[in-house]
Amino acid sequence: MGEQNQPPLSNSQAIYRILDANLDRAREGLRIIEEWCRFGLNDSDLTQLCKQMRQQLGQWHSSELRQARDTPGDPGTHLTHPQEVERTDIEHLLQVNLCRVQEALRVLEEYAKLYNTQMAARCKQMRYEVYSLESELLGKKRHYLLEKSALYLVTSPSGNLFAVVEAALQGGLTLVQYREKNADDTVRFTQAQKLCQLCHQYGALFIVNDRIDLALAVKADGVHLGQQDAPIALARQLLGPQRIIGRSTTNPGEMEKAIAQGADYIGVGPVYETPTKPDKAPAGFEYIRHALENCPIPWFAIGGINSQNLPDVLKAGARRIAVVRAIMQAEQPTLMTQYFLSQLQHPVHYV
Predict the structure, then answer these.
(1) Which position among 23, 186, 210, 306 has the lowest Cβ density within 10 Å, counted as fewest Cβ atoms?
(2) Cβ-contact 266, 287 below 8 angstroms
(3) Which residues carry a binding-site annotation?
(4) Which of 127, 144, 161 is the last residue in one of the domains?
């Protein structure tokens, strides 16, 4: 109780302590974010942005403010919360520290109006830069995970939909597309929402087939569009630059068009005949070889791929595959997922 009964500080000393504490808080949070940009994303531009903001804040952290610090007498140093001692994944860690920086900058902006108006104005501008950084980091994380994903599960209607998808996620799957052509919208929304939460719980990307509105409603990571679906430009306008947009392609012309229009990835196929696309003739291995030599964005061989024909698909040059029945109808989806991933991680055997 002794600390609470101490006489209040003078206004100037209190302001100095507030500025000192929040300069520390903002700089610490930025350093944590900077380390991920540097070592997690290998992104020199974002790393430099964080560093510049840290250095700018450091220039204002004068000896006058530091000397006002009184850590033993600060009643807030002993306050804590259970959520502060755990982080569920990288996204959570980044989100917590981005919020920390934003809150600190808001405090600095207001109290610096009584201390240094230039500092106040710059902290306001910096806060908006951190909001933009937050959006870009989320987009970077999605695209980074897309780049690393070698196996793509496209769902089909199933009485065990959630159990199968979760089993595949437990096997290491990091990319799931929800595909449901016939159910009512209420069913689609409920299923997509639950699948999205499930994927994010396991750190996986969740994509919705065809429906941009549904992708937005459940906060999916992106949308996959067929050749007859909405234009990529419209999807980008609605979803923004951070979300992922994929496009189905069956020949080099469609591939080139999808790339030019800004697709983040494409499907290449169907490699074999498949009941999922009964009206599409197989594109075969020739299109895979063309994509291997000419496609600069991630591409997934798709169409009738299973554990038996996978070696031939890899030998043709595929390094990423999308499957439907091979996992959705597998007796042990976890083991099947692990098998596919193990084969995709060591394609050298098929070169």
Answers:
(1) 186
(2) no
(3) 177-181, 209-210, 229, 248, 274-277, 304
(4) 144
One domain for residues 43 and 127: yes
| Six-digit token string for 246 | 């994929």
Is 314 inside a domain boundary? yes
d(CA 93, CA 305): 37
- The per-residue pLDDT for 137 is 86
A 10 A CB-CB count for 305 gives 26
Kindly state whether residues 140 and 157 are assigned to the same domain: no
C-alpha distances (whole Å) from 258 to each of 23, 142, 250 are: 46, 19, 11
At residue 88, the pLDDT reads 72
**Rounded distance, CA 240 to CA 242, Å?**
6
Q: Residue 301's Cα: distance from chain center in Å?
A: 22
For 220-263, write each residue's pLDDT tens digit: 999 999 999 999 999 999 999 889 999 999 999 999 999 999 99
Host H or E run for residue 265 = strand 265-268
Q: What is the pTM of this model?
A: 0.73
The residues, any chain, with a CB within 8 Å of residue 81's CB and separated by 6 or more, are: none
* 103 & 189 share domain: no
pLDDT (0 to 100) of residue 351:
46
Contacts of 87 (CB under 8 A, 6+ apart): 93, 96
CA atoms within 13 A on the CB side of 207: 27
Q: Which structural domain range is residue 125 located in? A: 11-144
Q: Which residues participate in the annotated binding site for Mg(2+)?
A: 210, 229
Contact 100, 83 (CB under 8 A): no
Provide the percentage of residues in the chain whose pLDDT is more than 70: 90
336 and 278 in a single domain? The answer is yes
The 10s digit of each residue's pLDDT in 57-70 is 999 999 999 998 86
Q: Report the domain count for the chain.
A: 2
**Active site residues per annotation:** 179, 248, 277
